Structures are given as structure tokens and as C-alpha cells.
TrEMBL record:
Ranges in coiled-coil conformation: 385-426
Record lineage: Bacteria, Pseudomonadati, Bacteroidota, Sphingobacteriia, Sphingobacteriales
Alphabetized UniProt keyword annotations: Cell outer membrane, Coiled coil, Membrane, Transmembrane, Transmembrane beta strand, Transport
Gene (name only): tolC
InterPro entries per the UniProt record, alphabetical: OMP_efflux, TolC-like
Protein known as: Outer membrane channel protein TolC
Length: 426
């Protein structure tokens, strides 16, 4: 991408660069990537339950008091010690699931979970791109507003200098000079307000992309591009990432229901073990000790017969969750359609406003130029000149606001088409 060599060095930050920086450095993007990485480990965990489970266990015990048992032998009761002072065991066991519907369903759910996090990362990236683009355009609009004030200030300063010369020559009025100075002071104050607002919006942009606050940035000298045809393009709501994510969530809920149903299925597993069960009067190593071997192999079958209706209740609860998610999906589609239509309407209104304000800017500029010329020739008052300057500045600010509204609506339309990533690839 790009890098910063010095804390006080300014970098030309394009929208594409800002989005790339955010996707690499912002916390949300990093967390979504970690969730995706963790999903693979979840798959590995569930897959591990379907593989053979091998365990080893051992024990060593010294019987301080050996238990005795009384045995009646022909009317004579004899006490017999049951065991030896030392006992030890060592066993290696194997367990393999042969049929367990819960495990099979869990494997499908783990794979679907990974797909869910893939879509979730895409949605996180899109939301991040939307915030960055909006913050970027707001900074640019404030820069244009500052440029308007600077232009107005330079023009008014030139007029003030002319009036000051006339006053010095005894041909002008002191009150006109004072009024012009007041106008200049107001412009300087307004400029400082906009400079402060620009700094805040630049900081907001840095935060949106995860950039340190001590980095200085500047936006390139370009203009808001307007495409009137974008409002004519149709968006497929079913391709929206939000919809795809909710559908994948419904799949997970359906698998959750299947896992509840799996509790009604029998479970069959294979078990085997091999080991030693030793005993003796002395310590196992170097003592009077015997190590007879032991081994077994068998099948374990579990058949649920009656659970008191708890399994059925869990299945019903899982089914309710699925239906709730489906209702939410339909409501989401309705809301996304509303957002799309509103963005189109905003685009159309912004285009009309942009055209009107562009005409106003041209007209206000002509009026200002004529008024300046008339003022120099004594055909216009200072009030008329200052009013003309103010009208020109207002027209420019209105145009910049209309352009900002257009760009924000444009982002929503691009989002509706599921093409926010195109802002990175431009």
C-alpha cells in the first residue's frame, strides 16, 4: 500500500488507499479474519470426535489394610485376605463411533459455520467500506467549504484594499472600510470554525480506517464525480450480503434442529482395551509382583426409549428459532428494498439539486463580477457587493452539500448491488 516515513509528513490519501488501509488495520476487519480462522479450528474439533479416541491410563495403589472376607467352610469360619499389599494397572483403550447422528450433524454444522464466517467477514468489510467512504466524502466536502471561504476572503480583502486606498485619497467613506473589515473578520472567524471542523472530520476518518492520530493526511485535488445513470441500475436484494448471511444462519438453525432430532437415534460405538493388572507383596519394580495381561473388545449400543418429552420440546424450540429467523429475513428484505428505493430517490433529488445549484453558482458568479465592476464605477453600493459575495459563497456551499448528499446516496446504491468492493478495485 503506502507508508508514512515521518509523523509530520503528509500523505496524499485517495479513497481507494483509505479503504485498503482500513481493511488491513481496522479492528473490525482483524476480528472478522480471526473469526474465520477460528472457524477452521471448530471444524477440526468436531471432526476429531468422529476419529478414533485412544487413551492411556494407569494407577498404583498400596493397601495399608487389606480387606478380609469371612468364609464358612464346614461350620468353621475362616478369614481370608482379599488382595495383595500392592496393586497396579496400566490400560490403553480405544473408542470409535460407528453410528452417532449427533456427530455427523455436527460435522455439517461446523462446515456451515465456516461458510457463515466467510460471509460475515464480507459483510464486515462492506460495512467498513461504507463508513470509510462516508467519512472520506465528509472530509472532502469540508475541504471544499474551506476553499470557498478562502476564495471569498481573498476577494473581500482585495476590495478592502481598494477602499482603503480610496479612503486615504479622500475619495472613499470610512464607514465602508469599517464594514469591509467587519466582513473580513467574520470570514476569518468562519474559516477557523471550518478549519476546526475539518480537523475533527480528518480525525474521524483516521479512526474509521485505524490510522494513528499523529499521522497527517491530505486528500487529492479532485472533484465529486456524478453519474446520472446510476439511479437507473437495478439491484438484486437476494444478492445482498446481509441476506446471504441470514440465509446461512437459517441453515445453521436447521442443523441445530437436526442435532436435537439426533438425540432420538440409537448410538453405536466400538470399544477395545489392552493392559496389565498387577499385584504383589512388594513394590512393582524389583519386588514380588505379578503382571497378568487383560484385554477386551466390544460394542456399546445406546437406544433412547423415553425421555419424558424433553427431546421433543427441544426440537420444537429449535423449530421456533428457524421460523423466527425466516420472519426476520423477510423483514430484512423489505427494509433493504426501502433503503434501495430511498437511495434512488435521493440520487434523483440530488441530481436535480446539483443542476440547480450549479446554475446558481454560475449566476451568482456573474452577479458578483457585475456588482464588483459597478461598485468600482460607483454604480453599486458596498452592501450590494457584500451581499453578492455572500450569495456566491452560499451557492457554492449549497452545491458542495448537494454533491455530498449525492455521494452518500451513491454509496447506498453501490451497497444495494453488493459492489462496495468495487471501490477498492477502481
Amino acid at each position: 500500500m503506502f507508508s508514512f516515513s515521518y509523523a509530520d509528513a503528509q500523505e496524499i490519501l485517495t479513497l481507494k488507499d483509505a479503504i485498503k488501509y482500513a481493511l488491513q488495520n481496522k479492528a473490525e476487519a482483524k476480528k472478522a479474519a480471526l473469526d474465520l480462522e477460528n472457524a477452521q479450528y471448530q471444524i477440526d474439533e468436531v471432526r476429531g470426535t468422529a476419529l478414533p479416541q485412544i487413551n492411556a491410563a494407569g494407577s498404583l495403589k498400596y493397601n495399608v489394610i487389606i480387606p478380609e472376607m469371612a468364609i464358612d467352610m464346614g461350620g468353621v469360619v475362616n478369614k481370608v485376605k482379599m488382595g495383595q499389599p500392592w496393586n497396579a494397572t496400566g490400560v490403553v483403550s480405544l473408542n470409535q463411533q460407528l453410528f452417532n447422528q449427533s456427530v455427523f450433524t455436527g460435522l455439517k454444522a461446523a462446515t456451515t459455520t465456516r461458510e457463515f464466517y466467510i460471509i460475515n467477514k464480507q459483510l464486515t468489510d462492506e460495512q467498513l467500506i461504507e463508513r470509510v467512504a462516508t467519512a472520506y466524502y465528509e472530509v472532502y466536502q469540508t475541504q471544499l467549504q474551506l476553499q470557498t471561504i478562502e476564495t471569498n476572503l481573498n476577494s473581500t480583502t482585495k476590495i478592502r484594499d481598494v477602499i482603503a486606498g480610496l479612503v486615504s485619497a479622500g475619495l472613499g467613506k470610512q464607514i465602508d472600510l469599517d464594514r469591509t473589515n467587519v466582513q473580513i473578520n467574520n470570514l476569518i472567524a468562519n474559516r477557523q470554525i471550518v478549519v476546526n471542523a475539518l480537523e475533527l472530520k480528518e480525525n474521524a476518518l483516521k479512526f474509521a480506517i485505524g490510522m494513528p492520530m499523529d499521522k497527517d493526511i491530505t486528500l487529492p485535488d479532485n472533484t465529486f464525480e456524478v453519474d446520472a445513470n446510476i439511479a437507473l441500475e437495478e439491484a438484486n436484494i437476494d444478492n445482498r450480503t446481509e441476506v446471504l448471511l441470514t440465509k446461512k444462519q437459517i441453515e445453521l438453525l436447521e442443523l441445530n434442529k437436526k442435532s436435537k432430532v439426533a438425540d432420538l437415534y440409537p448410538r453405536l460405538s466400538l470399544g477395545a482395551d489392552f493392559g496389565w493388572s498387577g499385584f504383589g507383596k512388594g513394590f512393582p519394580i524389583g519386588g514380588d509382583f505379578f503382571w497378568p495381561k487383560t484385554s477386551s473388545i466390544g460394542l456399546n449400543l445406546s437406544i433412547p426409549i423415553f425421555t419424558g418429552g424433553s427431546t421433543r420440546a427441544r426440537i420444537k424450540q429449535a423449530d421456533i428459532q428457524i421460523r423466527q429467523a425466516q420472519v426476520s429475513l423477510e423483514d430484512m428484505k423489505l427494509g433493504l428494498s426501502l433503503e434501495n428505493d430511498n437511495a434512488k430517490a435521493q440520487i434523483k433529488n440530488s441530481l436535480l439539486t446539483i443542476n440547480t445549484n450549479r446554475s446558481n453558482v454560475s449566476l451568482a458568479k456573474e452577479v458578483l463580477e457585475d456588482t464588483e465592476n459597478n461598485y468600482k464605477n460607483g454604480l453599486a453600493t458596498l452592501t450590494e457587493l457584500l451581499d453578492a459575495e455572500r450569495a456566491y459563497a452560499d451557492a457554492q456551499n449549497n452545491l458542495n452539500t448537494a454533491l455530498l448528499n449525492y455521494k452518500i446516496a451513491e454509496i447506498q446504491l453501490i451497497k444495494a448491488k453488493g459492489e462496495l468492493k468495487s471501490l477498492v478495485n477502481e
